[in-house]
Amino acid sequence: MKHIFMINRFSLRERLDSYTKAIENAAKKLELDYKIEINSEEETTEDILDRYKNKSDIIYAVGGDGILNRVINSIYGTKNKVACIPAGTGNDFNRSINESFKEGDNVVDLIKCNNNYLVNVACFGVDADIANDDSVVHNKWIPRKIQYDVGVVKHILLYKPYTFTMKWDKEEKTSKLSLVTVCNGRYYGGGFNVNPDGFYDDGMLDAYIIYATNRRQLLDYLIKLLKGKHKECKHVEHIRTNKFTIITDNDIDGNLDGESLKSKKFEMSVIPKALTFYYNKQLVEQIKIELGK
Fold this sequence. Notes:
Layout: E1 3-7, H1 9-12, H2 16-29, E2 34-38, H3 45-49, E3 58-63, H4 65-75, E4 81-86, H5 92-100, E5 104-113, E6 116-118, E7 121-125, H6 126-131, H7 134-137, H8 147-157, E8 162-168, E9 171-183, E10 205-211, H9 215-226, E11 236-241, E12 243-256, E13 259-279, H10 281-291
Helix pairs in contact: 2-10
């Protein structure tokens, strides 16, 4: 079984060479059978991973949540395992790994959203607008650590409520609201603790509906969200289910683990124990050492 490092050059940018060298040095020191792959405009992540669909390797997503999402969508249904080396802006999935994953194999649920798969969080409304705003998220003039915070301020100022029809179990509700998050994991948006009691292998989705509020209430919600205390807000509804659907009158952009998806209808369901996630803490720590962190 090989260790395949799928590096996202578009996330690492000026750090590409340092990460490539650090991974190579760490893999050699740990005597791994490895190969480094780097995507490009000519050869996408999907193109590269198509070569591994009939193998049984460990595919490491090197970058942020977006490259992890693309790796999962490429290898789901194969014999490959997925792993990650956090090097992106948010690295939200990695926060949960550090809290709850054991060394080696961890079998996790996936969320299917239309024809896409994700392991962490799907969001719609204001938070999707923030996550999808390339003018902020990929702005080289804004420091990486505060990009999401800048996006929050911008979209609170631009805030207008959405009208969603939501369906789950035997319920159906049409409401004006600020945002909806449908969670398998715990964190999103660079550390917002959206689902503090979430588990990756419980066969359930956790949906949080935040009903239409004014800007002050929305800011209060986001502050509580950062601390994992948002359930205390009276305009928050928490639902546990295995299927959740959002319908809108016009196309909107949802965000699935860092990847944008445009649609009028988002049908989400949980796929229990769908993927094997491999956690190699020793390797992650050795790469940090090689990077001088």
